[in-house]
Amino acid sequence: MSKENNTPYYIGLGIIILIFGYFAVTNIIDYVQKDKVVDSNRSEDRDPVADKFLYKFNKVPDFEFINQNGDTITNETLLGKVYIIDFFFTTCPTICTPMSRNLSIVTEKLAKYDDYRSISISIDPENDTPAVLKEYAARYNANDSIWYFLTGDKAATYQLAREGFSSFVAESDDPAIRFEHSGNFALVDQEGYIRSRKDAFGNWIKVYSGIEENGFPAMIKEITEDAETLLNK
């Protein structure tokens, strides 16, 4: 075949290469801009980016309770703060003690941040008055400027737990237990949104286990790290 006859072939091939190159470069740029680059290839000392690495769930519904000092605490009070929240009751014979012990560990680690708070809400407000909560708080050497133990309307408490945090709470048929509830912690950001990470299988979780359960340890390390991510952003 003559050189002249090869010319259209080379022109067509060149056009194909140019088109392919254009789309390849465009896709690479789009891939990077949309943050699809594998995170494990990035520097381990990257700055925390909460919106990217922690999923934003629903906003915490309005609430109003009284703490162990008789002060009114609302969701508005906590805006601008990062807080970890759980539901408990002071006469709990089962999981509340390890939950409170674990939350005290987390609170101690995060107490250096001015914008951090721990929130424990009683599901037994008839018994858990501010005075009772203050006595309970003393068991864990709780700093009452950082760790709020709250009590208030029972129906509002249960609604907040169930609808706001997807947390199980109920009265028990067993008189020795009296109440049942989930052993979880939830993490809330400065704007009042519940935040969380992915589990080991790549699924977003909404709450962190506050106790050792079914052979799995409490997620103290994970929730502490994620709270610091929010506090440092």
From TrEMBL:
Record's keyword annotation contains Oxidoreductase: no
InterPro entries for the chain: SCO1/SenC, Thioredoxin-like_sf, Thioredoxin_domain
GO molecular function: metal ion binding
Residues binding Cu cation, per UniProt: C92, C96, H181
Keyword Metal-binding in record: yes
SUPFAM superfamilies assigned to the protein according to its UniProt record, in alphabetical order: Thioredoxin-like (SSF52833)
Keywords: Copper, Disulfide bond, Membrane, Metal-binding, Transmembrane, Transmembrane helix
Residue intervals passing through the bilayer: 7-25
Family that this chain belongs to: Belongs to the SCO1/2 family.
Record protein name field: SCO family protein
